[in-house]
Amino acid sequence: MVLVVVMGVSGSGKTTVGSRLAAKLGWKFYDADDYHSPENKKKMSEGIPLNDEDRIPWLCELHDILRREDSSRQDVVLACSALKKMYRRVLASGASAIESNQPEQPGENSALKILFAHLDGPRDIIAGRLEKRKGHFLPPELLKSQFDTLEPPSAPENFITVSLEKSLPEIVLEIENAIFQGEALLD
Predict the structure, then answer these.
(1) What is the predicted pLDDT for the residue at 136?
(2) Which phi and psi (to 5°) does residue 84 adopt?
(3) Are 77 and 138 in contact (CB under 8 A)?
(4) Which residue of 12, 29, 60, 163 is most buried, as measured by CB atoms within 10 A?
(5) What is the pLDDT of residue 108?
(6) What percent of the chain has a predicted confidence (pLDDT) above 70?
(7) Degrees to nearest 5, angle at CA 96 with 114 and 27
(8) Which ranges of the chain have pLDDT less than 50?
(9) Cα separations (Å) of 37 from 71, 78, 81, 156?
(10) What are the angstrom distances between the C-alpha of 187 and each of 75, 116, 182?
(11) Distances (CA, A) of 146 to 55, 95, 99, 101
(12) CA 125/CA 74 separation, integer angstroms
């Protein structure tokens, strides 16, 4: 089974890419935005960036979903901003990632093996996408705070960076290739 998190700032195409990838592979798809609390959605819609205290319970809930699917041997794609390294650790390890900076010990509560697919691109392209987006709770004004918060993935994290300047089919194919080339690492 494989767990993939399509990550990036708001407007990078996480939901579009993640849902297309999941549909192509016949996997389950989750959109992290569907799991934000009403308070978080209200805060963002008012142009107030979320802080760690707002995000941690949300990330822990997403970890629980990934853990459940992993236990069921279900392949999953999750679209989630996962902007900070700590947030990605919470997705992999749950609340224990916050309580300790120690590496996970092998055993029952070991970290989930996740491939993070980082959708990366120029701020002006993403801003243009946000301007055109209708009906989303996050206003374009919060893009700066998203970029300010972003800590791009780096070694030893399991990740690939994909340019969002490519076409949607090219992006999906690049992630798909990374999944199947690295599948032995994820199992």
Answers:
(1) 52
(2) -105, 155
(3) no
(4) 12
(5) 44
(6) 87
(7) 25
(8) 104-108, 184-187
(9) 25, 17, 15, 31
(10) 11, 15, 9
(11) 13, 23, 24, 24
(12) 34
Nearest C-alpha neighbor of 92 from the set 72, 70, 73, 119: 70
Helix 85-93 vs helix 52-71: crossing angle, to nearest 10: 40
Of 27, 32, 50, 14, nearest to 129 (Cα)? 14
The answer to whether 51 and 111 are in contact (CB under 8 A) is no
Helix (H) or strand (E) holding 160: strand 159-163
Q: How far is CA 107 from CA 93, 110, 111, 112, 173, in A?
A: 12, 5, 9, 11, 34
Residue 17's alpha-carbon distances to 1, 14, 119, 123, in angstroms, are 20, 5, 9, 18
pLDDT digits (tens, 9 = 90+) for 45-58: 888 888 999 999 99
- Tokens 């998203």 correspond to 146
- Token pair belonging to 74: 């279900």
Quick: pLDDT tens for 26-39.
Answer: 999 999 999 999 99
CA-derived radius of gyration, the chain: 16
